[in-house]
Amino acid sequence: MTAVSTPTRALEPAEGDAGAGTLLRRGEARYRMLLLALFAAGVVTFAQLYAPQSVLPLIEAEPGWDLSASQAALTISAATFGLAASVLVWAVLAKRFGAFPIICASLTLTTVMSFAVAVAPDFGVLLAIRVLQGIGAAGMAALAVAYIVERVSPRDVPVVAGIYVSGTTIGGLSGRIAGAALAGVADWRGSLLGVALISLLFAGLFIYAGWRSRPRPATEAGATPSADHAVATTTATDLVECLTHRPVAGLYLLIFVLMGSLVALYNYFAFHLADPPYDLSAARVGLFYFAYLGGTVGARLAGSAAGRFGRGTTLAVAVTLMLAGAGVTLLDELGALAAGLLLFTTAFFAAHAVASGWVGQIAGPQRSATASALYSLFYYAGSAVLGWLFGFPYEHFGWTIFVLVLLGGCIAAALLSWALLRSTGPGSARSGVS
């Protein structure tokens, strides 16, 4: 493997890292169970997180609620705000108790809240429940990559991260499609209740497969008890190390912009197609969300491309393709809108698969939980902030100006990715560590 240049040195691991012999490798039975568990976790987390996106126009039209498009979009931002605000708490708990039990607790919380969303009596209560749902989702989102780094041999990390990201895309797709399809025969409450039932099944699958893939107790990362003060001190040190490490901080800023742009596009895409001249129903709009399948392809291809061309090059190409996809959505034809959404989504998840795995490996095993939690914080802060703010150009100036704002965000992200590539060198991330 190509060594990382000096600016991209890994954060120095703490003493006592798990030996390489405890890590799972491709071909092992427990490795396959881990893949199944991570895929299921990605599905359950993101199906619940983004299911309301497909029924935002129905939530906006709820009798007695008197909402605008940007207010309805707060349904998504509330959950991602709760997620962003709590990822570091989950990271501290994972250091104390281990990743697997904390992920199980987080999936339980978010699934329970999914059922509560369907019976929210008013918009304020709906937002409060969505915040709690986001807090639950934060456990999986924050710890997934750290869990992978702790459990899998370094050469297999990009592939396993790609499987997890594939699960998140299937989850995002299934939540949106199921929500839109059920909205055709029920109201938005019935559609979200159906998604909650699907999520319950996948949460059970994660617990089963995750338990089957667990290492022996003596090798469980993070399972060694330690004093709360020591955990808090270590985490504070990790935060400073991660935030001041240039390549890691660059990836945080990059994903903030990319995720905000993606969520904004999906938030207001439904409103755009529900308005003249298209006037599409929620069920027909839901067909466009099959573009999310491109994310599964993009995530899988990104793992192979990163190994061959380097993470920096793969990331820069992915962001450039996002820029192209956003530009295509400026065309009026429905086919062009679908193609632009597909390209944008595919490229985003390619970038996300590369960046998420890169952060954990640069940080090293002992800081991977904190580094990944910070990655999730910036990821979902972008969703909560930009996913909402980008709605104002849409409401006041229409689709064209909205897309131009997205293009500006993607250009800024592209410049940042090229700067990161220039500082690390094109082959820098074949290993991710020095």
UniProtKB/TrEMBL annotation:
Coarse class of the protein's main subcellular location: membrane
GO molecular function: transmembrane transporter activity
InterPro entries reported in the protein's UniProt record: MFS, MFS_dom, MFS_trans_sf
GO CC terms of this entry: plasma membrane
Record key words, sorted: Cell membrane, Membrane, Transmembrane, Transmembrane helix, Transport
Places the protein is found: Cell membrane
Domain Major facilitator superfamily (MFS) profile: 34-425
Gene3D superfamilies in the cross-refs: MFS general substrate transporter like domains
Lipid bilayer topology: Multi-pass membrane protein
Domain of life: Bacteria
Pfam families per record: MFS_1 (PF07690)
Entry's transmembrane regions: 33-51, 71-93, 100-121, 127-149, 161-186, 192-211, 249-269, 281-302, 314-331, 337-360, 372-391, 397-421
Family the entry assigns: Belongs to the major facilitator superfamily.
Protein name: MFS transporter
Originating organism: Nocardia jinanensis
